[in-house]
């Protein structure tokens, strides 16, 4: 008996290890249920409920067309049989901003529901057939098609692999005319996908896991960043001189040093509390509408407002004018601070916040603008304001507890205005991020990637000249020499400016990823000048027939048979890249892994790349349409390559990479899916190529 139990557990363990070793397989993370209800003599309500496995998400019909591909709901209809009433309604989706595509995308986790009211115009109609084309994403994306048949006679419904041959009293065969619930813009969208351009509103939704790896910002990152911002603003003319004055007041105006220190610490706590109170309204707004932060992040007018505010603050920092809170408000707070006790200390803290607003306001605006536009939620805003308040309050509390350290403080002087001007340049640069958000949402194409980068180059080059003393601002003191700190900061600014320049020619600029518009939102797909490192520009051999240059100037085929024939002719292994036009993790692999010099060299010289777009909506020629082994009719290029991946490699992941020997089409090693680690991906490529050479 014991041996049998041990054997049972051994089998379970072996099965588990085997399953892990097999890697990605065909999965179907969405389960459907459907029903039909009769609403009147000729009207029926069709309902489709979907349950999504944990960790996956599905994109809405109405997600931004320039990001992940939207879901398509099609009603297979013969003219005169039935008509749809309105558009297909859906459960309200979640929303999140994608740094990869530069748009806000709409999607569901866990579950969603679709509903459509139809009116039967042909009494002989039996079945209403619905096709839902969508993608479900995690670290990889998979394309799914779910077909439903609703029987208007028996009021039953079912999900089917392939549609039945429908008969009505009026016709024997259903005319295969697909009437989409969305408008005819879908046709244009399909054309754009076929061309490899940005997708239009009505295509399916491929995006990958933009969300997976771009989860909501880490609270600790927000806290530490805003804490640093709070500390930095203390080195401005409005705050720095207040530190010794305030600490001395608490230590000298109290009967005992311990009480003075307590009041100083309480003063700092009050500063933090006041900033936290500023976030309370946003918790209320979020309670009213859970999507308020998503709305803010993509609201054109709010982004333009933030842009105007940041530019105004920057000009103020340069010395053109000073922004202050109303004097009456400061006077009232100052008078209240004279009441004594802890209440008086609280109003002293409020007075500091008000009178120092001209210096802290821009940094505070940066905290609000960054957190609100990141769709982080009210909690993250509270975290950010807590960090900022603590950073501002910390010097007051530390020097009150350890007054001997006061002697180490630098003397106030002209350097404080220099700090303020530097903040002004940074504020001006960040302002254009908000203008870029508005431009991306409205697709104005005013602030495309090259223009954005050129503006940043101009800003930081001007900052470099300022730090090196080539010009001064109205409130600067005469500078007889450049201090070491100022010189080092100037060198840093110059280095950053030089780093930005290749971005005009399509360099990814990973250090500032997420700030400029995405690579595909540019005047030229290959960057300023149009070469982008293509093979032609590199002076290499003529492009092979049926191939084209893609990202980083890599030569790629988009048809397996043609790529296979070429690989045989040059005797190189094949790298099959199962990808998608709107697959986020596919783009991440291309930008962050394929751009590595060692990996790029392999892709350009040692393999034949075949990129198969599994989300392409391009229709297959009539003579190439076929029925897969699963019984599904394959009518598009994307369906063809998806079926190819499933049938040959038992996977529907995207991205998915397979190294193949062209001689017998056998795998050279185990395929891999999304592999963001450069060394790991390079090792995988190297091992497969080594096996080929053997």
Tell me what you see in this structure.
This protein is an alpha+beta fold and 694 residues long. The chain has 21 helices and 20 strands. Strands 3, 4, 6, 7, 9, 10, 11 and 12 form an eight-stranded antiparallel beta sheet that branches. The chain has a six-stranded mixed beta sheet with strand order 13-14-16-15-19-20, sandwiched between helices. Helix 7 runs antiparallel to helix 13 (378-401), helix 12 (357-373) packs parallel to helix 14 and helix 14 (415-442) packs antiparallel against helix 15 (449-467). It starts with a helix and ends with a helix. Residues 1-23, 167-216 and 530-540 have low confidence and may be disordered.
Mean pLDDT rating: 77
Question: Care to count the β-strands?
Answer: 20
What is the CA-based Rg, rounded?
Answer: 31 Å
Based on secondary structure, the structural category is: alpha+beta
Shape: globular
Number of DSSP helices?
A: 21
Q: For the terminal residues, how far apart are their CA atoms?
A: 49 Å
The low-confidence parts are 1-23, 167-216, 530-540
Largest sheet: 8 strands, antiparallel
Estimated share of beta-strand residues: 15-25%
Helix fraction, binned, reads: 40-55%
